[in-house]
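Quick one, T. Sequence first:
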Amino acid sequence: MALEAPSPVGTPYVGVIGPAEAGAQEYALARRVGELLAGHGAVLLCGGLGGVMEAAAAGARSRGGLTVGLLPGTDRARGNPHLTVALATGLGELRNGLLVRACDALIAVGGSWGTLSEVALGMRLGKPVVSLAGWDLPNAPATASPVPAGTPEEAVAAALGALGALRDRTDG
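Structure tokens:
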């Protein structure tokens, strides 16, 4: 089965970030985010490992979506089984910066220190960042905080809407 490559122009690349040690609620939310992103024709980028990353990739792949994992190590085989493309960066946690630079928008599901670093980098770069069941940033100015979302549907609509890329390709 040949994969249809998305057009690099106009196709939204959305990073789904969150803890590798995800609980059941975070896993379910991330999987649904992945399903919805695939239904809108977005390319899903993630850190390529378990937890939120695996759940989002599984959701996207279940709907025929393209998933890219930016792995911290040098072994592609360490990526989760739902990746279409596994890139072994060898950068460790520094891959977080590469992921943020490579995507057009970010959806954070849950929270961890690595997730917080990606949120901060995304905000610093002016990328749309949406937080679903994530950490609060109580002292951050409203104009420099992630957009809160209550559901996966709201999170995907906020991220793609900020990019002007909200469109349905499936009944997802």
